[in-house]
C-alpha cells in the first residue's frame, strides 16, 4: 500500500485592518458614525427649541425620513424628493404610488400619516360650527386638502339647516386640467344626506385658481338644480397653489 503525499500551498492572509473591521461592525449593527449622529441630534434640538418654522423643507423632510431610517443619512433622499415634487406641501399631497416608487413604502406611510394628521387638524376647526361664520377655517381646510393635488378633484361640502358640516365628499376625480361633474349626482347626494345647503370645491393643479368657462357653466347648472329643490348653494371655491377664487366674491354666483 502506497502512501500519497499531499502538497500544501501556502496561502497568505491579508493584513488585518481595524478600520475595515470597525466599518463592517457598524454596518452589521446598524450603527452610524459620530458626525452623522451629531448632525441628527443638532437638527432635532433645533426643531425642539425653535419649532418647524426654523427648519427648511429639506430639513423637515430629513427629520421625517429618520423615522423609517433612523441611522441613515436622509439628506440625499430629502433632496431627491424636493427635486421631484418641489416643496414639502406638494410632497405630502403627492400620489402615493409615485412616492413609494421614489422612497419606498415605509417612508411613504410616514409622510402620508403627517398629511392625514394635517387634514384632520384643519377639519377639526370647521366641525360642529356654522361654516358661513368660520370662512377662514373653511379656506384653510380646502387649501390643506386640495391645493397641491396633482389631478383635479371635485368636492362638495354638504351642510345641515344650521350650516354645519354633514360631510365632505369627493364626487369627481379627473386629469391635470379636467374633472367630470354631474349636477344630478350632486343634488341626489344632497337629498340622501338631508342636506339643506352645499359648498362646491375643486382644485386647479396648474396653481391658477381662475375659473374656466366650463367651471362657470357647470356652477350655473348646479345652482338652477339646487334652487328647484330649495337647497342653497353658498359658494363655489377653486383652490390653487397660488391662492383661491370664490364665485360669490367674484360676482359669479
Structural features, described:
The chain has 253 residues and is of the alpha+beta class. The protein has two domains: 32-120; 128-246, Cytidine Deaminase, domain 2 (3-Layer(aba) Sandwich), CATH 3.40.140. It is 48% helix and 14% strand. It has ten helices and five strands. A five-stranded mixed β-sheet has the order 2-1-3-4-5, with helices on both faces. The longest helix has 20 residues, at 105-124. The termini are far apart. The model is unreliable at 1-29 (pLDDT under 50).
Secondary-structure map with pairings?
Layout: H1 18-29, H2 34-50, H3 57-66, H4 75-85, H5 88-92, H6 96-103, H7 105-124, H8 135-146, E1 153-159, E2 165-173, H9 183-192, E3 197-203, H10 213-228, E4 232-240, E5 243-246
Parallel strand pairs: 3-4
Antiparallel strand pairs: 1-2, 1-3, 4-5
Helix pairs in contact: 3-4, 6-7, 7-8, 9-10
Q: What's the CATH architecture name of the largest domain?
A: 3-Layer(aba) Sandwich
Got a strand count?
A: 5
- Mean model confidence by pLDDT: 84
- Helix- and strand-based class? alpha+beta
Biggest sheet strand order reads 2-1-3-4-5
CA(first)-CA(last) distance = 111 Å
| Fraction of residues in β-strands | 5-15%
CATH topology of the largest domain: Cytidine Deaminase, domain 2
- The CATH superfamily of the largest domain is Cytidine Deaminase, domain 2
User: What's the helical proportion of residues?
Assistant: 40-55%
What is the CATH class name of the largest domain?
A: Alpha Beta
Please give the largest β-sheet.
5 strands, mixed
Low-confidence stretches: 1-29
Q: How many distinct folded domains?
A: 2
Count of discrete alpha- or pi-helical segments spanning 4 or more residues: 10
H-E order: HHHHHHHHEEHEHEE
| C-alpha geometry | elongated
Radius of gyration: 28 Å
